[in-house]
Amino acid sequence: MTLSLKGLTALLFAGLLTACNPAPDTAVTDFARLDNEIQAWMASEDVKGLAYALIDQGEVTHVAAFGYRNVEAGLPLETDTIMYGASLTKAAFGFMVMQLVDEGLIDLDATIDTYLPRPLPEYEDWTSLADDPEWRLLTPRVILTHSTGLANLRFLEPDGQLEFHRRPGTRYGYSGEGFYILQLVLEEGLGLDVKTEMQTRVFDRFDMPNTSMQWREDFAGNLADGYAIGGTFEPHDERSWVSASGSMDTTIADQAQMWAGIFRGEGVSEAARAEMLRPQIAIESATKFPSLNEETSPRGPQIGLASGLGVDLYQDETGHWWSKGGHNPWTGNQAICHEEAQRCIVLLANSVRAELIYPQIVERVLGENPVPWWWYYPQQ
User: Fold this and answer.
1) What distance in Å separates the CA atoms of residue 353 and residue 348, rounded to the nearest whole number?
2) Considering only CA atoms, which of 257, 215, 251 is closest in space to residue 59?
3) Which residue would you say has higher pLDDT here, 239 or 213?
4) By the 8 A CB rule, do 47 and 353 touch?
5) What's the whole-number mean pLDDT along residues 130-138?
6) What is each CA distance from 323 to 38, 162, 233, in whole angstroms?
7) 350 pLDDT more than 60
8) Cα dist. 203→16, 48, 89, 296, 298 in Å?
9) Quick one: pLDDT band at residue 307, thresholds 50, 70, 90?
């Protein structure tokens, strides 16, 4: 799998700029002032609840939470409040898979039929692919780079049945369904329990006591409900099933530890960390969603926008950036890291309106940046 010519050109150009322009020192030291600024921005956009964490040199330096976990009951959002991780789960899952790669348990480029005891279409959820042999082109790398050619979720298909819209491995198109397939490979092909592997390899490793891939009853006492763009209330979804694509419940305190650990590469080899953060396939789509949108834009190649393994990558004159978002109509999450500056910000919100102020917050914390907000949130 290779980047397009435009993507390679952008990356080479950005690399030359990086060599000439080292990352500036933009570390925030006045946390009280930053907290006040964020709360003012929240008030200006009616953001119900927002929590954030700062990471510097791979260590957590600040964690804070503001607003409400439930406005109607007047319950405050706190740093140990259970929040929905959404698709941040995918990055955590990808990091766990890289540990399996290190141990030789799975090969990023082996096709999934290498591991599955039965053909994929013989499993109940994948029978619609029975007449399409392209499922045999799926590999862990193709899945982790969102280049399966499948829709994001099957309910988005007119008939609710999955089909390949593109040849696997040829173009980026965000797909949670791909992560379900890789979860199946680990469970059916390798005999692993994804919930257990995530708990021991990620959550326990990084000391995350209030994070789980499956709903826990002890979460109910300090839980964040959700708020849509118009402010309407949505109760927290008690996810009783384990989903590599997005079932993680967590807290900002735990996410701070997780992203600091991922940044340090704790638990994986240097080679595995580098592979996770290496551009795997160029992203030329004009927007992230709808995931099968054929419209392209030169803006992505201009910043070397590409998919790593479970994370998004881009560059500017200060160096390399990587991030992962998590979104639904009531949730807005972002984790963004600047490799050369060795700084990250993690943002969790139970109010999707928080996405309106994320560009301001990230620029305040990390300085001028190439984060493709136009790609993440085109409606803004």
Assistant:
1) 11
2) 257
3) 213
4) yes
5) 97
6) 20, 28, 28
7) yes
8) 38, 27, 11, 37, 38
9) very high
Is the pLDDT at 69 greater than 80? The verdict is yes
**What is the pLDDT averaged over residues 225-238?**
96
Q: Are 335 and 324 in contact (CB under 8 A)?
A: yes
The pLDDT of residue 9 is: 39
Is residue 321 within 8 A of residue 337, CB to CB? The reply is yes
Q: Which domains does the chain have, with CATH numbers?
A: 5-105+209-376 (3.40.710.10), 106-189 (no CATH)
Sequence-ordered list of residues with C-beta below 8 angstroms from that of 34, at least 6 positions apart, any chain? 28, 62, 364, 365
- Amino acid identity of residue 156, one-letter, is L
Question: Is the Cβ–Cβ distance between 221 and 262 less than 8 Å?
Answer: no
Q: Please give the structure tokens belonging to residue 303.
A: 């910043």
Terminal C-alpha separation, the chain: 33
The verdict on whether omega for the bond into residue 290 sits within 30 degrees of 0, i.e. cis, is yes
User: What are phi and psi for residue 127, nearest 5 degrees?
Assistant: -65, -25
CA separation, residue 16 to residues 19, 315, 373 (Å): 5, 11, 24
Average pLDDT, integer, range 300-321: 98
Check if the beta carbon of residue 339 is closer than 8 Å to that of residue 58: no
Closest Cα to residue 42, out of 358, 288, 337? 358
Query: For residues 72 and 233, what is the distance between their CA atoms, to the nearest angstrom?
Result: 9
pTM to 2 decimals? 0.93
Residue 366 three-state SS: helix
User: pLDDT by residue (tens digit) across 244-277?
Assistant: 999 999 999 999 999 999 999 999 999 999 999 9
Spatial separation of the C-alpha atoms in residues 348 and 231, rounded to whole Å: 17
In this prediction, residue 29 carries a pLDDT of 87
Residue range 312-328, pLDDT digits in tens: 999 999 999 999 999 99
Give the pLDDT band (50/70/90) at residue 24: low
Question: What element of type H or E holds 325?
Answer: strand 319-328
| Structural tokens at position 211 | 């994070």
DSSP 13-60: HHHHHHHHSPPP------HHHHHHHHHHHHHHHT--EEEEEEEETTEE
Predicted pLDDT at 25 = 63
Contact 154, 161 (CB under 8 A): yes
